[in-house]
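WARN retry 2 of 3 for item q-0093 after timeout on previous attempt; input resubmitted unchanged.
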Amino acid sequence: MAAPTAEAKACKPVLRILALHGYWQNERTFWERTGSLRKNLKNRAEFVMISAPLRIPDPDDDSSAGVADNQREDPRGWWFSDTEKSSFNAMDETKSCAGLEESLQAVAKAFSELGPFNGILGFSQGAALVALICALKQRRDPRFQFDFAILVAGFKSRAAEHAEFYQQPITVPTLHVYGDTDRVIPGEMSQELASHFVNPVLLTHAGGHYIPVCSAQKKVYFSFMDSFCT
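OK item q-0093 returned
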């Protein structure tokens, strides 16, 4: 009988991964947008999504009054770089931000009430937050107990008050995924973030701002995750 292929092999037990969405998304929209990823990793991982605690202000509150949240997509964010407008841009170089502590508390609550988790995955601003959480884990913050992290289209926060998170090399095992044609978070920004980690695994793809799940990328996901299937 032929040996099972890497794709057919399953994790026993299946890894549990907490997933953090990008800016202007929420747990429901991120669940929908990760359908291919979840399908291809179903033998290795199950994903638990949570929404960021910060609601992005509606640009037209008057016209949307009385409209249900699920009809407006209920956009969320993990922190705001522009505290006056309650908005975020990864390119903003600011002295201070708003909302990070609330988001850390929300993630800590998920670990406490929905965990345990083997790993944590973040996309875009969610990946930037995961990097900060990895730094806190390295400092032995008891709220965040996990073995690995997957950061897709991640970036280093340019807020001065977040600089402390990058002062020491981070040893948490990480997989960094980014697109060569990503115009939202250019690959150079994801590479900059990866440089703050010790022995990061890098996965590039030819596309833009999304989570790739083609055959070549699946092999990298499988190889990275299988080392934690114990």
